[in-house]
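Minutes, project check-in
Item: structure for the 102-residue chain
Input as provided by the requester:
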Amino acid sequence: MLAQFSIVPLGKGESLSSYVAAIVKEVEKSGLDYRLTAMATIVEGPADEVFALIQKCHKKAQGFAPRVLTTIVIDDRKGAKGRLEGKVRSVEKKLGRKLRIS
């Protein structure tokens, strides 16, 4: 399963990087493969582990603010693994070149 999630502690001002850093520490502790992007975090792993991680991150954010907005997008393809890298490589193959990714 791939899951993209974004967690926003509301009412904490414009700069949220310190809160994002605290959440990323939780993601790293999970051991799941992940990518941090400018707008969200993408994780890959078994559904139960992914859901548990997102819930843990959401609860952590509740410690930062009385209101938290969490958005989740799930791509669950039966039997598929390595999609965090594989989906990008597939597009690169069709373009015939490497993409600029972080």
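Outcome recorded: The chain has a mean pLDDT of 94.
No further action items on this chain.
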